[in-house]
Design brief:
The complex is a heterodimer of chains A (214) and B (437). Chain A contains six helices and four strands; from the N terminus they run H-H-H-E-H-E-H-E-E-H. Chain A is α+β, with helices and mostly antiparallel strands and 214 residues long. Chain B has 14 helices and ten strands. In chain B, strand 1, helix 2 and strand 2 form a beta-alpha-beta unit. In chain B, helix 1 runs parallel beside helix 11 and helix 6 crosses helix 13. The model of chain B has no long low-confidence stretch (mean pLDDT 89). The chains are: A alpha+beta (214), B alpha/beta (437).
Chain lengths: 214, 437
């Protein structure tokens, strides 16, 4: 057989083998994300039911629910990093965006639950919600969002259990998120909502801390 | 998306080139050396163009005398390209020594500096040999090199009418500086791949340090192109464009001087690239014709130049973008009093391009090992006692590390510089100035 043809056939074989391996790796990461989201979903339902159950039978349910909430907050943050990691690497799995949407919905539920818990139990912690853009970012927006994320992590380190940090992607076409954005009149990203106060653009730790007072 | 498409085309091209050379190796590894039963010694004219080469003339003459080739079959033609040193005087003294050794010698002198191609064409006109060997004045030939080149023109005792030229195996003479050691590694690889490319009529250059041509064919094709910066590339393409073949004598070694410092290296490579562009431009139309240029050389050169250029611009853009983003991030975080390096971590996800990167790396590594194997084979095969340097040669460990990590990265950079230079030369019409460098 002609040597050009042999090389051509081998190139096609190796190229498609590499492609298949790449798709398999993406699928593996997608399944991993799906499994993580499913676990989060179960954890969420578990925590939510426990909260309802305690409300009904226990008078001193607040402390338990708070601890549950806190543990969930940490867990959901770590899983968020894993999803972000998969998002960067994957090229063949558009379904990953649906998993991200499910994740954001879980985060939103958690936030609303956190507000409810704070009101019912008279907790003093603050809900710090960080809105960021996922798509079509300009260079300035990339830098601003990375800076804001760093500031908020500093805040979390400083305040510990006194704040619930909830990052939410703002542009995933979710009705609830769109409604929240409309309600708080968010036009510029990154945006931070501390309880009911909205900050748009990069906000310093000191400014946020004026409210959180850690 | 555009970057991804270019990356995919680059991956496919590199994989194809690597696999092609692997298959060529499997088919050629047992025939690296041509063994003719009977040694043939036709008449041969050795053409030497020299400019300010006084320090090399005597060793060259000594080298000619020691060649394992019948002295009465050799004719030497020196052309002094109007040197400002004593090259011409040494040539005259050398002529006497050579003639004492029964080697016919002629000397020509250009009245002004005209360049190598012009000098070789002058010598070609008066050459009498059936074959002409072109050598650089700073080259040293292995004793059997001419004999080993000549045998490639023959199939048994019969002249192969399609073979117009034979390229020798060119290596670096006494590599001392790190740059020379790196070039030595490069030429070891180039020699091996050139030998493999012989099988598909894709030898792209008849190297200046030593190449042998059929005189009649060279004259028929019009001699060397005096307007090309690399007459040795151009003549090879012209031979193939006329459907003649070029062979490579793997066992015909010639050592030549290569730049000791980066500045000279850069200038030399720029000139080679410029000559390459000139040649590609001249023969691009041959893509439509059924010649030996069509299958490999033109597509390879065209795609190679294009992808390398795009690759450099994309890499520079991506690196610049990342650095700019990082610096902006550092400045902004500092403005807000937070430590940018606090949560710095490197986490790498294996993606599609990592997989192809590994495949390309491994296949390239295999090709490098092939070329080293072929070099070792040749080292053991050589019986020339003059070849002690080569026999005792050991690969320098640092150069082995620097070659794939740093030296190779210089090639795309010099290519980009050459492109800018090419357009500058076109705009200012200063190609003659480059010819004489």
């Amino acid at each position: 057989m002609n040597v050009y043809l042999k090389a051509g056939i081998l190139t096609i074989l190796v190229f498609f083998s590499g492609l298949i391996l790449g798709i398999w790796l993406d699928q593996y990461r997608l399944q991993d994300v799906k499994r993580r989201i499913a676990t989060l979903d179960i954890s969420w339902n578990d925590a939510r039911l426990l909260y309802i159950y305690f409300q009904k039978i226990e008078k001193e349910y607040c402390e338990l629910a708070f601890n549950q909430n806190l543990a969930y907050n940490e867990k959901i943050y770590k899983e968020g990093l894993e999803i972000e990691f998969a998002e960067k690497a994957n090229r063949f799995t558009p379904e990953l965006i649906d998993e991200k949407r499910r994740y954001v919905l879980l985060q939103t539920q958690f936030w609303l639950n956190s507000i409810e818990l704070k009101e019912k139990c008279n907790f003093t912690y603050n809900n710090v919600v960080y809105f960021y853009k996922q798509h079509n970012l300009t260079r300035d927006e990339v830098v601003d969002q990375k800076t804001q994320a760093s500031i908020l992590l500093d805040l979390k380190e400083k305040c510990g259990n006194k704040i619930m940090l909830i990052p939410l992607a703002a542009d995933l076409n979710l009705t609830i998120i769109d409604a929240i954005i409309k309600h708080y009149k968010i036009e510029k990203y990154p945006a931070v909502i501390v309880d009911n106060i909205v900050f748009q653009g990069v906000t310093s730790l000191e400014k946020i801390n004026e409210i959180t007072k850690c | 998306m555009m970057i991804e498409i270019i990356l995919i085309i680059t991956i496919i091209s590199i994989l194809y080139i690597n696999f092609l050379h692997m298959f060529l190796w499997f088919e050629s590894k047992n025939s690296l050396i041509k063994n003719n039963k009977k040694t043939i010694f036709p008449s041969i004219s050795i053409l030497v163009s020299a400019y300010n080469e006084e320090k090399n003339i005597y060793s060259l003459i000594k080298n000619f005398i020691e060649l394992n080739y019948p002295k009465n079959k050799i004719e030497i033609i020196f052309v002094d390209d109007n040197s400002s040193d004593k090259t011409f005087e040494y040539m005259k003294k050398g002529k006497r020594i050579l003639e004492k050794n029964e080697i016919k010698t002629k000397i020509l002198k250009n009245e002004e500096r005209k360049g190598k191609a012009y000098s070789l064409n002058r010598a070609l006109k008066i050459a009498k040999g059936r074959f002409v060997a072109v050598i650089d004045a700073d080259s040293i030939l292995e004793k059997d090199s001419l004999k080993n080149c000549i045998k490639h023109f023959y199939d048994g005792n019969r002249l192969n009418k399609k073979v117009a030229a034979v390229a020798a195996n060119i290596l670096v003479k006494n590599p001392k500086t790190m740059l020379q050691k790196l070039q030595n590694l490069e030429f070891i690889m180039v020699s091996c791949f050139r030998k493999l490319q012989e099988k598909i009529n894709a030898i792209m250059v008849t190297p200046g340090p030593l190449s042998v041509f059929r005189r009649d064919i060279l004259l028929k094709l019009g001699g060397f192109d005096e307007n090309n910066l690399t007459e040795d590339i151009e003549i090879a393409w012209r031979i193939l464009a006329n459907n003649y073949k070029i062979r490579m004598a793997f066992d015909a070694k010639a050592w030549t001087e290569y730049p000791k410092n980066l500045k000279k290296w850069w200038m030399q490579r720029t000139r080679w690239n410029l000559g390459g562009f000139q040649t590609l431009g001249k023969y691009l139309r041959y893509l439509r014709r059924k010649t030996n240029l069509r299958k490999f050389i033109i597509p390879y050169s065209f795609i190679g130049y294009t992808l390398t250029t795009l690759g450099v611009f994309i890499s520079v853009y991506l690196i610049f973008n990342s650095i700019q983003n990082f610096l902006l991030y550092v400045l902004e975080t500092m403005k807000y009093g937070t430590n940018p390096f606090q949560r710095f971590e490197i986490k790498y996800a294996i993606d599609l391009f990592t997989i192809f990167g590994v495949i390309i790396f491994l296949s390239s590594l295999y090709l490098i090992s092939i070329s080293f194997d072929s070099y070792k084979f040749l080292k053991n095969y050589s019986k020339d006692e003059n070849n002690k340097v080569d026999k005792n040669h050991k690969f320098d460990k640092i150069s082995l590390i620097l070659f794939p990590t740093a030296y190779i990265l210089l090639f795309p950079l010099v290519l980009i510089y050459s492109i800018f230079k090419f357009f500058e030369i076109k705009r200012k019409n200063i190609s003659k100035a480059w010819l004489t460098k």
